[in-house]
Design a protein that fits this description.
Blueprint lengths: L8 E5 L3 H14 L4 E5 L2 H5 L8 E4 L2 E2 L2 E2 L1 H9 L5 E6 L4 H10 L3 E4 L4 H9 L10 H10 L15 H11 L4 H8 L3 H15 L4 H10 L6
Parallel strand pairs: 1-2, 1-3, 3-6, 6-7
Antiparallel strand pairs: 4-5
Helix pairs in contact: 1-5, 7-9, 7-10, 8-9
């Protein structure tokens, strides 16, 4: 079967209109003629799955909850929807809960539309829709290694950038605008940063950023 014939109905769930359009365009490029529905929140998406789509691209950081709840709802319906997470989060704290919820793919929003379309077309020949960095993370996760405490876990490059901007005094909205992501996504990064650094306030995080040389003390 050609890639174009794999899917005819899709759902794209993301709180940013431009990202929704980008994901929808990638689906249309991968599967010409596909019908794409759009949702900007978890509640809006839940209302659209009475007739479940064949494929869904789902953001995790939605304004009214996690996209994993939608994945779980689709799985409970046993509708056979191929659920693919499309997100900025590249850490274990988001990856593995999404996979446990039933996600069958996990792609990062760091690729151009054509690359994403190629990944989606690969579904037709059995390729898992996984960003290369996510595939490497999965392989590392299942390799034997000594157990480590979560405290002191290294920050990802995006978490480091969020910490640097936060330490400079930028608000959540300003950090979101600077990085081109949603305020809710920034909040999610900060939660993980606080956990990894074992801090509970912006001031403590700023001190840690200065200690790491990310900002001037």
């Amino acid at each position: 079967m050609s890639a174009a014939g794999v899917f005819s109905r899709a759902l794209v769930v993301d709180d940013l209109a431009d990202v929704r359009a980008w994901l929808a365009d990638a689906l249309r490029e991968a599967f010409p003629g596909i019908e794409v529905e759009l949702a900007g929140s978890l509640g809006e998406a839940m209302a659209k799955i009475e007739a479940p789509p064949q494929i869904a691209l789902i953001d995790l950081g939605l304004p009214d909850g996690s996209g994993t709840r939608l994945i779980e709802a689709l799985r409970r319906r046993d509708a056979g929807t191929l659920c693919i997470v499309a997100t900025v989060f590249d850490d274990d704290a988001h990856l593995f809960p999404a996979l446990r919820a039933g996600a069958q793919g996990y792609v990062l929003k760091d690729r151009d539309r054509a690359t994403l379309a190629d990944m989606l077309r690969g579904i037709a020949v059995g390729q898992p829709p996984l960003s290369s960095s996510i595939a490497r993370r999965l392989l590392r996760h299942f390799q034997p290694m000594p157990l480590q405490a979560d405290e002191g876990a290294p920050l990802t490059p995006r978490e480091t950038e969020v910490l640097r901007l936060t330490a400079k005094g930028l608000t959540l909205n300003e950090v979101a605008a600077a990085l081109g992501i949603s305020r809710h996504t920034v909040s999610g990064y900060l939660k993980d940063i606080y956990r990894k650094l074992s801090v509970g306030t912006r001031a403590e995080a700023a001190l840690e950023a200065a200690r790491r040389g990310l900002v001037a003390p």
